[in-house]
Design brief:
By secondary structure, the chain is of the alpha/beta class. The chain has ten helices and 28 strands. The strands form seven sheets. The chain has a seven-stranded mixed sheet. The protein has a five-stranded parallel sheet with strand order 14-17-20-23-26, with no helix packed on it. It is elongated and about 65 Å long.
Length: 385
């Protein structure tokens, strides 16, 4: 028996990330110089001693599956439990792709039941944050809740973009509003749920028989539990959290890493480490005439130009005369001599020719390029932009 089993929803298609997710699932997108987005949630589980974790994949899972492997970087390569990849499947009794977040858990009831847990943690693989799930579980037990939903205060002007939870003074939830035009408060759901398993299982099975249901936690399960006057509580999270669902938010979250003291996202926190697969590249090399200012430059990089307020992943080469500013450069990119990049996200293994100029204005969305996009741009402009 496991007291708590984690279920990590990692099947996000991530359409709003454009080219970044054309061939890989959103949680597998590179982030923060050496990580992938899902590393933050996996590391939260490892640091929170959640030792049994089902990872539910769906769209373009190959890169994600390769990255997670047997879970060893997160200390989850265990004989009893550990990390288990769960893909949609068709059995004799039926089955299909996951039609919603609740349906994804419902289709894997058999996986959860084999551990006979008392509690189930449902989390997402596409958010950037550092959270101790044991504190969430402790409040869930203390309040004798059927469900506990983690919330964070968002700016009032942005509250209408989120699912808002209205609570009493003791944080008991009495109403859930999906993207309200006039929100009553600014406590937004983070999509992180702790459930008492027997209660959740009953609602999942009932929901599976509702043909008009979207089989979603926020739209169906949570509202039905509130209608039945179940004990639902909010867990108020204090710290950095960001849903990197758009190109702009993805760029912002990477830039936030450069101001971690202000934002509270500390990659160098030895008590709450972020784990990932080690690339085993040699140390970075900074040339004698190079200038690196307020940037993250990772192993295997060779820098001979100027890098300012940027994030360079592993094995990136920046030649002489280059200026890279407020940009994110994914692994294996070569930036040719005398090139200028500003507010640009360069995808893996792109070769940028000498003298290339690409820039997005401060009020524009950052430019995302891969080799195909770049070749098309240069063909249209005769070699520059």
């Amino acid at each position: 028996m496991k007291e708590c089993v984690g279920m990590l929803l990692a099947g996000g298609e991530g359409k709003r990330l454009g080219a970044l997710t054309h061939h890989i699932a959103k949680p597998a997108v590179p982030f923060g110089g050496k990580y992938r987005i899902i590393d933050f949630t996996l590391s939260n589980c490892s640091n929170s001693n959640i030792q049994t974790l089902g990872v539910l994949t769906q769209y373009s899972p190959l890169e994600l599956n390769k990255h997670i492997g047997n879970g060893k970087p997160w200390d989850m390569d265990r004989r009893n439990g550990g990390v288990i990849l769960l893909s949609p499947y068709t059995a004799k009794t039926g089955g299909d792709w996951y039609s919603g977040t609740a349906d994804a858990i419902y289709q894997n009831i058999h996986f959860i039941n084999q551990y006979n847990p008392k509690y189930v943690l449902v989390i997402s693989g596409d958010h950037i944050y550092q959270m101790d799930y044991q504190k969430l579980l402790a409040q869930h037990k203390e309040t004798n809740a059927d469900a506990t939903i983690s919330v964070i205060e968002v700016p009032w002007e942005e509250a209408s973009r989120f699912g808002i939870l209205n609570t009493t003074d003791n944080l008991r939830i009495y109403e859930f509003e999906e993207k309200p035009a006039q929100p009553q408060n600014n406590l937004a759901s983070m999509g992180i749920y702790m459930f008492t398993w027997e209660t959740l299982k009953a609602y999942l099975m009932k929901d599976s028989r509702q043909k008009n249901s979207s089989h979603d936690f926020g739209k169906d399960i949570i509202p039905k539990m509130l209608q039945d006057n179940k004990r639902l509580y909010a867990y108020q999270f204090q710290g950095y959290w960001k849903d990197v669902g758009t190109v702009q938010s993805y760029w912002e979250a990477n830039m936030d890493l450069l101001d971690e003291e202000d934002w509270g996202l500390a990659l160098n926190n030895q008590n709450w480490r972020i784990y990932t697969k080690d690339s085993n590249f040699p140390p970075q090399f900074i040339g004698g005439n190079a200038v690196v200012n307020h940037s993250m430059v990772n192993s295997g990089c060779f820098v001979y130009g100027k890098v300012d307020s940027s994030v360079l992943f592993t094995n990136v080469r920046v030649e002489e005369g280059c200026t890279i500013k407020q940009s994110i450069i994914h692994p294996g990119v070569n930036v040719g001599r005398n090139s200028n990049l500003e507010r640009v996200i360069v995808m893996e293994n792109t070769e940028i020719p000498e003298g290339t100029n690409i820039r997005a204005g401060e009020k524009e969305e950052p430019v995302v390029i891969n080799q195909d996009i770049l070749d098309g741009m240069l063909a249209m402009t005769g070699g520059g932009k």
